[in-house]
């Protein structure tokens, strides 16, 4: 069965037939989220406006009895498709459970393209971000000398300083995860961030092992000095794109610059594996010294590359009144955590 709405044809397909080209639009991601309360719906969509069919992963989850949301993270829709999002949402509605209040599109399109916010018709900006809308993308096509030359001088110096100080970086599998997680807890306490239990990160590696056909590779890189672990990162590789997912570091030995050594190793490993880009996955929106994560901005932008400001999440209400109530709750929660709680 298919549904045609404004020249759009939607066909549900089995997960094993789904072929995405982004990590968040992959079978691996659908399986991972399925372990934590989300149900995956996979579709193949065709329209006269696109040269080829597009596969779309939509995740569905209840947040209270009788009320759920649907979420499409970083769908691989062609640039310039903003006007099609509303009719596409109406077409997908036929396949989503009745209690779905809204369909949230987390759009990866750059702000400064013909897919900008002015070109999106019939959707509302979401009250909260889910995926980081701002990031740094490193083009891995140049050779290593060129990649180093495109870094800021201080970053390049710190990459080399870590090596001179004896920091050693090794690629480890799930066997190193407990050590990494101890550092991650330390990081969470220091930076006051929420993290998943260790079992969540173990499930990442387990899914990669159990479903090699999904095409995802994970690498755990650990930095050590005198045999002692002082920092570590988890990096994914999928469809020619590498993504920095999680980072942890000790409160000690930060002057040895292990974070720089880790990122450089992640880039060179990604390049050697055939990846053409490396996503540092999340920075503040601007070079603002007053921003609480300004240090992160300076760190990641120091590696060169291109700063990308994505359009981020947009909502198509499927049950207008109840969707409005849910969006109001999100705004209230955002205000509580980002403004009220920080004043206490």
Automatic annotation (TrEMBL):
Gene3D superfamilies assigned to the protein according to its UniProt record, in alphabetical order: 3.40.630.30
GO MF: aminoacyltransferase activity
Keyword entries, A-Z: Acyltransferase, Cell shape, Cell wall biogenesis/degradation, Peptidoglycan synthesis, Transferase
A Pfam family this chain is assigned to: FemAB
Biological processes per GO annotation: cell wall organization; peptidoglycan biosynthetic process; regulation of cell shape
Stated family: Belongs to the FemABX family.
Protein name: Methicillin resistance protein
